[in-house]
């Protein structure tokens, strides 16, 4: 380490669970970080809304004026406040003035990433965001750098711990959604307002970031088809179990190639049945895991703590070390890669598979009428099973791959058949040959 090197001056925006842990580690291990970066790191200020709620932070560091802190004499801005504003304006101020940025703000990156990248490119500043998708799991840097020479075809993963805990608990206990959500709240896995998690907004923002990096195409959260887990029932879980499957909320980003060779990007978040033999099926509790399929590297899986103060702080500090090294060595981190500019494929044209459970009349010809409806919509059937009699009669159908719109139209038409009393459940199937 160069003892004469001026310190890397760090402004910290936000000091919640993650920010507190970042500040603690920087304070407790100054020599370690200096040795790794080639220069000391000095936190020059911590911007918070209510200073009195942070007695653990040295009072001379606390400020309520985040704008002044960003505009001050700092080299790196670490943003951990979340949301769109004022984070967007603060980070644009930093980047436009040549100050590098480390952020964990998935919503901001998913909505305004291109604006932030442009500001970074114009000034030569770095922007790092490893903590934005999967907490402590090293995922974005492998996509951004390690696999930069490969062609990624699919990224599929569990990127929200709250929903994974709920679905895992429903699978293991047989409890309903509402009951399990309440338990997740008591254990601290679910926020007081769990909407962003259970309705898929959190996972959709992460899917947008993953798709952008994997396919060198700008993908925003609004491009991601999103469905949450509130409609998943114990019956869905039980149906999956009978087929040796389990239900997970998946973020799926894939490169779709049509018969004429035209490529597009599909990005979606929704519950799906996957085989219990799939690596993602065994990911329980609030853990995250992402399965990557690349042409040369093959199948890769990244697994670990997807949230929490210490795990997320680990990713933030990893980015901070990378930024500091670039400053010391007069280098630059990776820039945005959006050269492919592939079109975004609508969900209706995305190839998927359905598991459909029907409450049907116990009479001759039921199966033939249902099968005829599938045939009308050019959807082929992979598995069909009829069980029960009388009022308990039911029919389970698993399709081959077809455009989602064709599958949805088929279900709508089946619901109108006189022999079908009710479409009990519809769920997509992933992770196995079609």
TrEMBL record:
Active-site positions, per UniProt?
206 (proton donor)
Sites binding L-homoserine sit at: 191
Q: Tell me which Gene Ontology terms the entry assigns under biological process.
A: methionine biosynthetic process; threonine biosynthetic process
Q: Does the keyword Oxidoreductase apply?
A: yes
List the SUPFAM superfamilies hit by this protein, alphabetically. Answer: ACT-like, Glyceraldehyde-3-phosphate dehydrogenase-like, C-terminal domain, NAD(P)-binding Rossmann-fold domains
What is the superkingdom listed in this entry's lineage?
Bacteria
- Sites where the protein binds NADP(+): 13-20
Where along the chain is NADPH bound? Answer: 106
Q: E.C. number, please?
A: 1.1.1.3
Please report the stretch or stretches of sequence annotated as the ACT domain. Answer: 355-428
> What is known about what this protein does?
Catalyzes the conversion of L-aspartate-beta-semialdehyde (L-Asa) to L-homoserine (L-Hse), the third step in the biosynthesis of threonine and methionine from aspartate.
Q: What is this protein called?
A: Homoserine dehydrogenase
């Amino acid at each position: 380490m160069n003892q004469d090197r001026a310190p890397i001056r760090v402004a910290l925006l936000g000091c919640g669970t993650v920010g507190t842990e970042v500040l603690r580690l920087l304070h407790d291990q100054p020599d370690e970080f200096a040795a790794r970066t080639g220069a000391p790191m000095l936190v020059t200020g911590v911007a918070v809304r209510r200073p009195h709620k942070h007695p653990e932070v040295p009072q001379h560091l606390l400020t309520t004026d985040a704008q002044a802190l960003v505009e001050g004499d700092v080299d790196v801005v670490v943003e951990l406040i979340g949301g769109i504003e004022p984070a967007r304006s603060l980070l644009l101020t930093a980047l436009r003035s040549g100050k590098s940025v480390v952020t964990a703000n998935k919503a901001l990156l998913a909505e305004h990433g291109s604006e932030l990248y442009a500001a970074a490119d114009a000034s030569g500043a770095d922007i790092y965001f490893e903590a934005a998708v999967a907490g402590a799991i090293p995922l974005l840097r492998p996509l951004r750098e390690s696999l930069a020479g490969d062609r990624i075809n699919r990224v599929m993963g569990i990127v929200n711990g709250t929903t994974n805990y709920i679905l895992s608990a429903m699978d293991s206990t047989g409890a309903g959604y509402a009951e399990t959500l309440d338990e997740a709240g008591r254990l601290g896995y679910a926020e007081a307002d769990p909407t962003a998690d259970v309705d898929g907004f959190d996972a959709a923002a992460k899917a947008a970031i993953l798709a952008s990096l994997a396919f060198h195409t700008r993908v925003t959260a609004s491009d991601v088809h999103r469905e949450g887990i509130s409609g998943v029932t114990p019956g869905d879980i039980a149906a999956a179990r009978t087929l040796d499957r389990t239900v997970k909320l998946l973020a799926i980003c894939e490169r779709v190639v049509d018969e004429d060779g035209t490529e597009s990007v599909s990005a979606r978040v929704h519950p799906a049945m996957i085989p219990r033999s799939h690596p993602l099926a065994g990911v329980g509790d609030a853990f995250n895991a992402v399965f990557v399929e690349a042409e040369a590297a093959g199948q890769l899986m990244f697994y670990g703590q997807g949230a929490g103060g210490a795990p997320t702080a680990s990713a933030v500090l990893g980015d901070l070390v990378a930024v500091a090294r670039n400053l010391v060595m007069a280098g630059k981190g990776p820039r945005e890669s959006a050269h492919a500019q592939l079109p975004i494929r609508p969900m209706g044209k995305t190839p998927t598979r359905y598991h459909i459970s029907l409450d049907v009349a116990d009479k001759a010809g039921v199966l033939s009428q249902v099968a005829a409806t599938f045939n009308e919509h050019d959807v082929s059937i992979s598995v069909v099973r009829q069980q029960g009699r009388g009022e308990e009669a039911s029919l389970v159908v698993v399709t081959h791959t077809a455009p989602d719109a064709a599958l949805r139209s088929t279900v709508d038409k089946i619901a109108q058949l006189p022999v079908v009393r009710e479409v009990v459940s519809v769920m997509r199937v992933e992770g196995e040959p079609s």
